[in-house]
Amino acid sequence: MDQQLLIDVLGWAGGIALVIAFGLNSMGKIKAQSKPYQLLNLFGGIALIINTAYYGAFPSTFVNVIWVFIALVALWKIFSN
Known about the structure:
The protein is mostly helical.
């Protein structure tokens, strides 16, 4: 698989992960304080950081860095309880 295709696949997978997390949370299937929700956000954010940085979309990269930071803090709180 060439590098650009891998970056594109990561971008799509990250976007899908974030939409799944949001959809499941909005439908009451998972809670925002749950491991699955935060892990989907963490994966999605990391994948989108890679994709947006590769394509030079730095405002989106910045947003996803914040997104990942929030997910990491939430996961730290979940695992430390």
